[in-house]
């Protein structure tokens, strides 16, 4: 298990690194998901400390949690409580479905673009209707079942997840609706 513990404009001392490694290791050992690595990022927002943890599991799924508190250790504890709850639910779902993924999740390459938003007011007309591309990146699209895609979206705390449906070999989308339910787009 590899740990990457960093701070954004914060000095992360040896005592905090040791505490994070011990606590996170014991919490992850409980669920025996065989995590491959964990990224822990500490930052400060106003008067609060923020802790973000992203754990990459050997199944190809990622679990992410974020905690806020007035002290840095309390922010980490808040974050690990959320991570503990997510992993407990994930393990329960795997047991409920009686399905263990035997191999890692396949990923397919795709292009990801960031488009510029409206910079000017409605007074000025755009030169063309083509959006301006700010950034172009390579992204990976996992090959999952619909249930696994919903789990991955919830574990990552993302509002939407694009995935390749294992059964139909087509690109699908799951997303969180405004009413709290999950939507699934299957073209």
UniProtKB/TrEMBL annotation:
Belongs to the HPF/YfiA ribosome-associated protein family. Long HPF subfamily. Gene3D superfamilies: Ribosome hibernation promotion factor-like, Sigma 54 modulation/S30EA ribosomal protein, C-terminal domain. It comes from Ponticoccus alexandrii. This is Ribosome hibernation promoting factor. Interacts with 100S ribosomes. Associates exclusively with 100S ribosomes, which are dimers of 70S ribosomes. Its main location: cytoplasm. Required for dimerization of active 70S ribosomes into 100S ribosomes in stationary phase; 100S ribosomes are translationally inactive and sometimes present during exponential growth. It comes from the Bacteria. Keywords: Cytoplasm, Translation regulation. It is found in: Cytoplasm. Residues 130-183 form the Sigma 54 modulation/S30EA ribosomal protein C-terminal domain.
């Amino acid at each position: 298990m590899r740990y990457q513990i960093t701070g954004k404009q914060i000095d992360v001392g040896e005592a905090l690194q040791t505490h994070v490694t011990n606590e996170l290791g014991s919490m992850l050992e409980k669920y025996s998901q065989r995590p491959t690595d964990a990224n822990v990022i500490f930052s400060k927002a106003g008067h609060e400390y923020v802790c973000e943890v992203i754990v990459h599991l050997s199944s190809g799924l990622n679990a992410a949690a974020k905690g806020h508190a007035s002290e840095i250790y309390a922010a980490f504890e808040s974050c690990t409580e959320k991570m503990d709850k997510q992993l407990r639910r994930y393990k329960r779902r795997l047991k409920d479905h009686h399905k263990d993924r035997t191999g890692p999740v396949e990923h397919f390459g795709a292009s990801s673009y960031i488009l510029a938003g409206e910079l000017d007011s409605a007074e000025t007309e755009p030169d063309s209707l083509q959006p301006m591309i700010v950034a172009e990146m390579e992204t990976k699209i996992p090959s999952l079942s619909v249930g696994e895609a919903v789990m991955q979206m919830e574990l990552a705390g993302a509002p939407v997840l694009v995935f390749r449906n294992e059964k139909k070999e087509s690109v699908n989308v799951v997303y969180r609706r405004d009413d709290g339910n999950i939507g699934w787009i299957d073209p």
